[in-house]
Amino acid sequence: MSIVERVRAAVEPLLATQSLTVYDVEHTGSVLRITIDAPRHEGEASVDLEAIAHATRLISVTLDEQDPIPGKYTLEVSSPGLERPLRTSAHFEGAIGTTVSVKTVPGYDGERRLKGLLAAADEHGITVDGLQLSYDDIDKARTVFEWGPAPKPGKQQAAKTNTKAKAGKAT
Known about the structure:
Elements: H1 3-16, E1 21-28, E2 31-37, H2 49-66, E3 74-78, H3 89-94, E4 99-104, E5 113-121, E6 125-128, E7 131-134, E8 138-143, H4 155-170
Parallel strand pairs: 2-3
Antiparallel strand pairs: 1-2, 4-5, 4-8, 5-6, 6-7
Helix pairs in contact: 1-2
């Protein structure tokens, strides 16, 4: 069992008691990065700072007890954020219907950077704006958060009406 698998096995049941889930586990060099998530409610962040701090303390104690990583390491616990990294098929499947940004691997026969609607994802690959990509073709991917408020109902229509009225006066 790999270090990532041992850490995930130790941490998932612990976080489940806090109504949290493990979004991702990465172990690179001397850094262990655990990304946690929670069910979202309209207008709320997925995980707040207080939940991350509490989860970090729980995870740290558990990893000290079980010692799944030989040697020293730095523990980082965070939320996936608004623009979530997509690394696994489960990540992509959870993002179906959202806008994603995809960077393909060097040497890919096609566009190097894509941005569009993630229409489908399965264990083999994804479909973005009608283009099918295998996971081997993807270097990096993330969801895209659309910044700015949505137009208020009636505001856009009123602007069009005013433009037409001004255009009518000019002729």
